[in-house]
Amino acid sequence: MPDARPYTPIDCGVHDRLESWSVRRETVEVVWRDGADTHRQLAVIADVVARDGADWVVLSTGETVRADRLVSVGGVAVAPGC
After folding, report:
1. How far apart are alpha carbons 41 and 37 in whole angstroms?
2. Which residue, of 3, 35, 64, 67, has the greatest Cβ tally within 10 A?
3. pTM > 0.85
4. Cβ within 8 Å of residue 33, ≥6 positions away
5. pLDDT tens for residues 30-39?
């Protein structure tokens, strides 16, 4: 889903953990905000991709979440950073 707000890179350490969870195919709880709505999903991180000037997290459920919309993954808070 397109997002008109400018992308804010997430903390590099969290980005590295996203890639690690993806490689290890671990099921994690992913919490993200989409406007005023907060979503929670247990899923495997299928991939972490860069496109349209942003990083995106692809979930095994078929959802794709822009990384700066993440609140927490696997109990780890996601903050701006890199």
Report:
1. 13
2. 67
3. yes
4. 39, 69, 71
5. 999 998 999 9
